[in-house]
């Protein structure tokens, strides 16, 4: 009995010394690498759940730890602290995330990204309500997934809506612009008063009028109606100073009686570019623009398209 008692006391003393000098902790190993110490396995597993697995928001669709940590009971000198935060960080570096977001696409061209399906639907419904009646909109919502967080550059619903709306407005505008043989006319050459229509006969001309006369102040800028290439830019008899622009598809526009020509043959021009100034050169009785639209060389009535 006495011996047993002594053994017990000795054991108790050793245990006390251990308890004074050491803490009982868990050593954590990830992928064969000892990464740190934690106080409680249960608390730590909760922390993994809260800080890694159930991370709220940020478009995270799916989280998986690449490797599961293993735990081993250890005595840790009391001078050494446990380092849960560093272990969590190490685990985060060994975690795969799949991010989910939504793409709203218009005409396979414009793409806007938002965080949720609800936001995507709001954007689409709003655009369709506003513009869907007048315009057939090729608009769709697609689910997108990525492992690369940097790819998830979503916009707020307001910005997405705004960007799409601007694109839709452009489509509406394009749709309402006149079209000559597939060439969109985007610009009136001048603003003025129509003084002679297409097709009328006049005592100062030998044939019917092949263009439209628009009277305005001498020197007024003449703008190209659509993108194209200048194919003629000089004086031509009764036309006076004449500029011809080829727009493709056999469509040409002619600008006659100019006081000045600001362009040269071969120059690429865009709708709205100023190519000449209104004048009264050639067979003309006062400053005006004689505008012709020609398809495969044949004049057509400009008022079918412009100055309606
Ligand atoms: Zn004329």
Q: Could you outline the blueprint of secondary structure elements for this entry?
A:
Layout: H1 2-21, E1 22-30, E2 33-38, H2 41-53, E3 60-65, E4 70-77, H3 84-93, E5 95-106, E6 110-114, H4 117-131, E7 139-146, H5 157-176, E8 179-180, E9 183-184, E10 193-196, E11 212-215, E12 221-223, E13 228-235, E14 241-248, E15 251-258, E16 260-261, E17 268-269, E18 274-277, E19 288-295, E20 298-300
Could you write a compact summary of the structure shown?
The protein has 308 residues and is α+β, with helices and mostly antiparallel strands.
Overall description:
- With 308 residues, the protein is α+β, with helices and mostly antiparallel strands.
- It folds into 3 domains: 20-93, no CATH class; 101-176; 183-304, Glucose Permease (Domain IIA).
- Helix content is 25%, strand content 36%.
- The protein has 5 helices and 20 strands.
- It has helices at residues 2-21, 41-53, 84-93, 117-131, 157-176; strands spanning 22-30, 33-38, 60-65, 70-77, 95-106, 110-114, 139-146, 179-180, 183-184, 193-196, 212-215, 221-223, 228-235, 241-248, 251-258, 260-261, 268-269, 274-277, 288-295, 298-300.
- The strands form 5 sheets. Strands 10, 11, 13, 14, 15, 17, 19 and 20 form an 8-stranded antiparallel sheet that branches. Strands 3, 5, 6 and 7 form a 4-stranded antiparallel sheet that branches.
- It starts with a helix and ends in an 8-residue tail after the last strand.
- The mean pLDDT is 90.
- Zinc ion binds at residues 196, 209, 211, 213, 290.
């Amino acid at each position: 009995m006495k011996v047993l008692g002594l053994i017990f006391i000795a054991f108790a003393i050793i245990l006390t010394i251990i308890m004074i000098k050491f803490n009982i902790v868990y050593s954590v190993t990830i992928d064969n690498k000892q990464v740190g110490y934690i106080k409680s396995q249960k608390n730590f597993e909760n922390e993994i759940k809260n800080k890694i697995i159930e991370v709220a928001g940020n478009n995270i669709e799916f989280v998986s730890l690449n490797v599961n940590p293993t735990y081993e009971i250890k005595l840790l000198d009391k001078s050494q602290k446990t380092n849960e935060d560093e272990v969590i960080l190490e685990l985060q570096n060994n975690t795969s995330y799949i991010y989910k977001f939504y793409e709203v696409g218009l005409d396979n061209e414009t793409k806007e990204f938002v965080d949720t399906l609800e936001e995507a639907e709001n954007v689409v419904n709003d655009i369709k309500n506003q513009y869907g009646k007048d315009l057939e909109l090729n608009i769709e919502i697609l689910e997108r997934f990525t492992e690369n967080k940097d790819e998830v550059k979503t916009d707020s619903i307001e910005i997405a809506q705004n960007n799409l709306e601007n694109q839709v407005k452009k489509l509406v505008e394009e749709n309402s612009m006149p079209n000559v043989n597939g060439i969109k006319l985007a610009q009136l050459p001048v603003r003025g008063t129509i003084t002679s229509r297409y097709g009328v006969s006049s005592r100062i001309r030998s044939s019917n009028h092949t263009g439209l006369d628009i009277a305005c102040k001498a020197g007024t800028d003449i703008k190209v109606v659509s993108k194209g290439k200048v194919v003629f830019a000089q004086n031509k008899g009764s036309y006076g100073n004449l500029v011809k622009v080829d727009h493709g598809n056999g469509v040409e526009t002619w600008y006659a009686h100019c006081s000045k020509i600001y362009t040269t043959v071969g120059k690429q021009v865009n709708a709205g570019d100023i190519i000449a100034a209104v004048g009264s050169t050639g067979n003309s009785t006062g400053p005006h623009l004689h505008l012709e639209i020609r398809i495969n060389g044949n004049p057509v009535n400009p008022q079918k398209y412009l100055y309606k």
